[in-house]
């Protein structure tokens, strides 16, 4: 990289990292606050291997072995074990690094830069060269690295190793004889060799963590409705306790076209993050978008016939005549009714006062029919259903289930006599609860996808409904 380009990148990086979130979400994006403990766990987990790590290491790592190898902590053919990169030590001095203890990870977030990462480990060595075959010793080593937080060419958050050093601690002799002057020789050799051997380990660890951070850009299917894609809206920000990602949700149709639903202009005031927790804030926009997709795809429409309703739900002209004789006129009794329910406008979701409500406007066309004959219209109603939304998080999405709170109707047109439509509200509410609400909940099985951030599992998170958003908080 040219010096001028490096200087420009550094300037952009420092500008993006300088100011942490003040708690007011002005955009419609999904806000993720990653606690430093979660980053520490991701780094620690990367040291014990796994499928992602195998892909990063490629042929360097033996089959079914992680970065640390098998058997004892870092022995047995892994990147740092027998046959790995530490074999070069044997060529230098006759010493061979046999294993390392699982490094202890500690980190500190550096506002305006990134992360200071420390790995403390113990190196076990034996000698098969001039120093004697029975020589076994161990040395404590602390690896300190300075890691910048930025954005990759793919637009994902990325950790970049900027500087790495090692500090050699106490050297212990377990077996064999090592004259005191040779201790200094071994110590000097380790000072020269260990940085070149342990700092690549840090790079490998960061590669695994960057794969996890990169998963935030995954394309999430929304069933037959389309898909949702997350991207970074701004450069990542960093404070003393957490990393902030402002994630922009992009909704696409099945054909791949971007769908832009109206966005709320009202900001959401995000509550302060507690220590040792991570947060994801789901904006009102995503709720309205999911319901908007359901409406435009016709998933909220339904034809309700007697075959679809339970036996205790009245759906004949006889039942209607008992409720409102003038609505039936002179039409015969004992005929089946058909309710043609159509949602012609997008539902509106309200997140307010710890409640989630959905206002769903629907046209209800009431018809009667004889089987195998064409239905005949009785009247049309304009209705507004107010549904209470129950929200439940899982590992990958926010689930929504609806129950009817109230329904109001007005007569739009009648082919018999004029009447007061409000007298039908109780009857229609019964039908909606028994038949229509379960259909809505099946359609809502797509849920609202949550961004994948360091594989944080929000299934046991605390859910809080705030003004214009939902906040999920999980302990680190």
Unreliable sequence segments: 1-23, 50-93
Provide the gyration radius in Å: 32 Å
Beta-strand content bin:
35-45%
Question: Main β-sheet: number of strands, strand sense, barrel status?
Answer: 8 strands, antiparallel
Annotated CATH homologous superfamily of the largest domain: Bactericidal permeability-increasing protein, domain 2
Say what the CATH topology of the largest domain is.
Bactericidal permeability-increasing protein, domain 2
The CATH class of the largest domain: Alpha Beta
Which geometry do the CA atoms define? rod-shaped
Helix content: 10-25%
Could you report the average pLDDT, rounded to the nearest whole number? 79
State the separation between the terminal residues, measured CA to CA: 37 Å
How many domain units?
2
The helix count comes to 9
The strand count comes to 22
Q: What structural category characterises the helix and strand content?
A: alpha+beta
Task: Provide a descriptive summary of the structure in words.
- GO terms for molecular function: lipid binding.
- Its main location: secreted.
- Keywords: Disulfide bond, Glycoprotein, Secreted, Signal.
- The protein has 476 residues and is α+β, with helices and mostly antiparallel strands.
- It has 2 domains: 36-216, Bactericidal permeability-increasing protein, domain 1 (Super Roll), CATH 3.15.10.10; 261-475, Bactericidal permeability-increasing protein, domain 2.
- It is 25% helix and 38% strand.
- It has 9 helices and 22 strands.
- The chain has helices at residues 3-17, 36-46, 51-57, 88-93, 180-214, 284-296, 317-323, 325-328, 425-443; strands at residues 24-25, 30-35, 95-100, 104-110, 114-127, 136-151, 157-175, 219-221, 227-232, 237-238, 242-252, 268-269, 277-283, 302-304, 336-342, 348-352, 355-369, 376-393, 397-414, 448-449, 462-466, 469-475.
- The strands form 4 sheets. Strands 2, 8, 9, 10, 11, 13, 21 and 22 form an 8-stranded antiparallel β-sheet that branches.
- Helix 2 packs across helix 5 and helix 3 crosses helix 5 (180-214).
- Residues 1-23 and 50-93 have low confidence and may be disordered.
């Amino acid at each position: 990289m040219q010096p001028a380009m490096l200087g420009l990148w550094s300037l952009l990086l420092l500008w993006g990292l300088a100011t942490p979130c003040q708690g007011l979400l002005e955009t419609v994006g999904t806000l993720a606050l990653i606690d430093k403990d979660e980053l520490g766990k991701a780094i620690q987990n990367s040291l014990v291997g796994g499928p992602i790590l195998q892909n990063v290491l490629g042929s360097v790592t033996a089959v079914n072995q992680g970065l640390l190898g098998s058997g004892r902590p870092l022995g047995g053919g892994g990147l740092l074990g027998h046959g790995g990169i530490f074999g070069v030590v044997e060529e230098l001095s006759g010493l061979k690094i046999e294993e390392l203890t699982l490094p202890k990870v500690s980190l500190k977030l550096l506002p305006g830069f990134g992360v200071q990462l420390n790995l403390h480990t113990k190196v076990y060595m034996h000698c098969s060269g001039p120093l004697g075959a029975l020589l076994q010793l161990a040395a404590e080593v602390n690896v300190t690295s300075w890691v910048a937080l930025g954005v990759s060419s793919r637009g994902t958050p990325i950790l970049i190793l900027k500087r790495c050093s090692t500090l050699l601690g106490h050297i212990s002799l377990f077996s064999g004889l090592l004259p005191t002057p040779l201790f200094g020789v071994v110590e000097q050799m380790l000072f020269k060799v260990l940085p070149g051997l342990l700092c690549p380990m840090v790079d490998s660890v960061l590669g695994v963590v960057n794969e996890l951070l990169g998963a935030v850009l995954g394309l999430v299917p929304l069933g037959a409705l389309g898909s949702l894609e997350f991207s970074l809206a701004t450069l990542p920000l960093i404070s003393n306790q957490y990393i902030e990602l402002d994630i922009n949700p992009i909704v696409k149709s099945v054909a791949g076209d971007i769908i832009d639903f109206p966005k709320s202009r009202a900001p959401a005031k995000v509550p302060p993050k507690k220590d040792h927790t991570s947060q994801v804030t789901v904006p009102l926009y995503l709720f309205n978008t999911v319901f908007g997709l359901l409406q435009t795809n016709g998933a909220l429409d339904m034809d309700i016939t007697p075959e679809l309703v339970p036996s205790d739900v009245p759906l004949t002209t006889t039942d209607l005549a008992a409720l409102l004789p003038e609505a039936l006129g002179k039409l015969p009794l004992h005929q089946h009714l058909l309710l043609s329910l159509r949602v012609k406008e997008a539902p509106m979701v309200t997140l307010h006062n710890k409640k989630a409500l959905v206002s769903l406007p629907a046209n209800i066309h009431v018809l009667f029919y004889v089987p195998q004959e064409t239905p005949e219209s009785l009247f049309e109603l304009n209705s507004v259903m107010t549904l209470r939304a129950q929200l439940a998080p899982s590992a990958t999405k926010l689930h929504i289930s609806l129950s009817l709170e109230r329904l109001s109707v007005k007569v739009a047109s009648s082919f018999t006599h004029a009447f007061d439509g409000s007298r039908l509200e109780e009857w229609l509410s019964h039908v909606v609860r028994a038949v229509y609400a379960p259909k809505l909940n099946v359609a809502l099985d797509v849920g609202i996808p949550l961004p994948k951030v360091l594989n944080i599992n929000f299934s046991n998170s605390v859910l809080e409904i705030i003004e214009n958003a939902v906040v999920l908080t999980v302990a680190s």
